[in-house]
Write a structure and sequence with these properties.
The protein has 224 residues and is an alpha+beta fold. The protein has four helices and 13 strands.
Length: 224
């Protein structure tokens, strides 16, 4: 399952599952992530400080006062992943989205560059069931794939200093939602009102988890 495990610092290792970005590899990453998190939530593995999954890697940070990299590597290689497969934890979400011009800042240019009429682009986006590969960049920020190849696009040459919270954007094979106002260089095609990170929820402030599936439902701006 794991191709190799490497030290990334004196307090961290990285589990490498390969270089490709696809669901099959990502599901292996998340299965290991779920297994470690489940044990930690039971009050075990207090030597582990943080577990961070990505597209095809899993980073584990640990407390040097309680353990060392060899023990953590052995733990990772021998942990029981049974019953922690991705299918047991997946949630499906439907997010409202408005594609009106005031929210879809790049939709017109994107349509022109991709040589796809606006409504066809919107329909392609709406019919895609997006798989959440990872959460990153900022709290609650999902990286979701996989877009149809006809919607593949580059990021903006000049990123915006401010992107409104809730902006839905695409680039390459991925779709994202900005949880907060922030800088950003992705192509903005609409907006949702879904709150992706809730600081008032100390147990699980992040709405989405890796492996969750997201679809979009078109609404008018009064519903956003």
């Amino acid at each position: 399952m794991i191709k190799k495990i490497s030290n990334i610092s004196d307090q961290g290792i990285i589990c490498d599952f390969g270089d490709e970005v696809n669901k099959e590899i990502n599901k292996k990453v998340i299965t290991l992530f779920n297994s470690l998190r489940k044990e930690k939530n039971k009050g075990k593995l207090d030597e582990i400080l943080n577990i961070v999954p990505s597209y095809n890697k899993l980073a584990v940070q640990f407390d040097l006062r309680k353990t060392n990299s060899k023990k953590i590597k052995d733990l990772v290689l021998n942990i029981n992943t049974k019953n922690n497969e991705l299918t047991a934890n997946v949630k499906k979400w439907i997010f409202p989205i408005c594609y009106d011009d005031e929210f879809a800042l790049d939709l017109k240019d994107l349509s022109k560059n991709l040589k796809i009429v606006r409504e066809e682009l919107i329909e392609e986006h709406l019919k895609t069931e997006f798989y959440t590969y990872m959460i990153g960049f900022m709290p609650g920020h999902p990286y979701m794939g996989d877009l149809d190849k006809k919607l593949f696009s580059s990021r903006l040459k000049t990123p915006r200093i401010k992107v409104p919270a809730g902006s839905v954007a695409i680039a390459e094979k991925f779709c994202i939602v900005y949880p907060y106002e922030s800088p950003g260089g992705w192509n903005i095609i609409g907006r949702t009102n879904i709150k992706l990170f809730d600081t008032k929820n100390p147990i699980n402030p992040c709405l989405l988890n890796p492996g969750d599936v997201v679809s979009f439902k078109r609404v008018n701006k009064k519903e956003i």
